[in-house]
Design goal:
InterPro entries: DUF3267 (IPR021683). This protein has 5 helices and 6 strands. The protein is of the alpha+beta class. The strands form 2 sheets. The protein has a 4-stranded antiparallel beta sheet. It starts with a strand and ends in a 5-residue tail after the last strand.
Length: 181
Amino acid sequence: MHCWKTINLKKQYGFDRLFMISALFGTAVFMTSYIGLAIAYATPLSDQHFLFFILALLAVYPLHKILHFLPLIGCHKSLKLIIRKQLKVCPAILLHINEPVSKIRFLLSLATPFLVLNTVLVTASITMPAYSHYFTMLLAYHCALCLTDIIYIRNLSRSPKYSFIEETDTGFEILVPPIVS
């Protein structure tokens, strides 16, 4: 197989720029979802169960990473879990794949957290409108986390259909099998 393209978002955008875009994206999601729910439901908001909100806020990031892992369960022998500090305070959980993965499986791995957690949060905010402000904050935080996944999905969707994705030190490499005639 040969490398068709290498994608490295930190090199392409830079950490600070990605962080800023992610924060702006999360803010936009919060404003639109909160205003939409406030218009749809006239239910008074409750500030009870704030401790559960804090626990849910802390649980979103690990759940996000676990949901990335689920589509890759068949590759569990080649997965490596790394925990390191980001910004000297926050732990960052990284999943590295040591072997090439099919494009479809990798795209599914990128999209699963966005689809599953956001569906749960939107459904919860609709079914419990008194706590919709909590759920919209969680939704905004999770959408901000998903921004890099969305950018990767956009880049990978343009790659050849039967390609494989391999993670290296320089980023994600899109590998294309040789043409057999």
